[in-house]
Specification:
By secondary structure, this protein is α+β, with helices and mostly antiparallel strands. The protein contains 10 helices and 15 strands. The protein has helices spanning 3-87, 96-103, 132-145, 164-185, 217-230, 252-318, 323-345, 357-369, 393-410, 462-474; strands at 110-114, 119-123, 149-151, 156-160, 193-196, 203-207, 234-238, 242-248, 353-356, 376-382, 388-391, 415-424, 427-434, 477-484, 488-496. The two termini are 42 Å apart.
Amino acid sequence: MNLYSTKQRWKIFLLALASVIVIITLWYSNHIAQRIREEERQKVELWSEAIKRRAELVVFTQKLFEELKTEERKRVDLLGNAYYIINDPPENMDFTFILDFISNNTTIPVLIYDDKGKLTASANLERVATDTLYIDSLLTAAKSKNDPIVLAEVGQKIYYDDSRLFTQLQGTMNDLINSFISETVINSASVPVVVTDSTQTIILKKGNIDTLAFNSRESMKTKLAEMRAVNAPIEVVLPGQGKQYIFYEDSAVLKQLQMFPVLQLILIGVFLLSSYLIFSTFRKAEQNQVWVGMAKETAHQLGTPLSSLMAWSALLETQGVDKSSLEELNKDIDRLNTITDRFSKIGSVPELTEANMTETLREMIAYLDSRVSKKVTITINSEDELLTAHLNKPLFSWVIENLVKNAIDAMEGIGKLTIDLRRENNRVCIDITDTGKGIPKHQWKTVFEPGFTTKKRGWGLGLSLVKRIIKQYHDGRIYVKWSEAGKGTTFRIELRE
């Protein structure tokens, strides 16, 4: 098993483990949120039911109040009749009961004035009779509700109003209605509430809700429609105010709980992505340092035997050794010099010079042509013989050498290799096409990963090195342009002119 396969297996394992952790975390958090959501929903339903019950209680209280009001009115009328009987009594009538009834009146306010309009007596007043403002207001209220009882024989008028109990009950009822609306709007469940009239077009009161949603008629209609879609409005009938509708929706806490799993997933994703980018940066930096260190050390190690070979070549030449043999030896020494130069440039900023691409490629292929299988035909096609690009020849020749050798291995030493040179979109494009076994589409990008190889004895560093040279040192691109199983592969290199 090669390094790339091992790394891929670990990636898949860690990804699967991370996915399981994320799924379990999201499931558990969603489970908790769901439980709280259900409790919140129950709370809202209880609140809604309580609103209905309280509305029924208010209506029931109103019915009791109406009955009490009727009884109080009868009592007031009886008091008036008692005064009238005293004013014009029948013959031989016993006044004991009537007088007891009048004297036992402890709740109905009574004002008695003489024929000059002076207050002569009073009963059941909440304030002292000297408080003229209070007496005037009470007299006005009494005149508006009941006709005065005139005692002509004694020159007096008797004014009476609703009893204090009746007045207190009236105030209590009004307070109960106002309290019902206020507590509905300002609720312990923190539910956004809107109270409308019977037409559902006029807002009477609202609470726990964004007022911006009601800054226009259209926005108000939209908001009410949204609330109606969540919960059916509660219909209530309040005494003296008629039918009203209570709109409500999920609380802000419930809405946040619904978004919590999604927010958590986003946060986990951001954290994982940030962690990956940070560690990937460190990993690449470490790889670069190791890569540069190994390249520099290789160049250094090659330098000593290379110098020795050059000395031996010179010595053999002085001893009259066959020049053709020395020529081949010197070619290999030059090749070793080129390799050493390549390794020494790794990690440094290479010097790029403008070069004729057609001539450069032909020189590189000419060197390789004599060292590859004769059953492989290499063809160079150029649409412009004067096409140039900026490159570092020692490093670029390394790229071409790796690509050509990989292509020959893919063709198993038999086939056709075509190099097409052209200009596209102000870039110099080099297409290297073989007739080998091809590359599966899912591996088009992974072939450039360090450690990826299909060879039993390969290290998987050739294409990784090619990509590094083209991208980092030549500011270019290299990628698999086309590949099909059994037909071949095309690698494309793009360089700036």
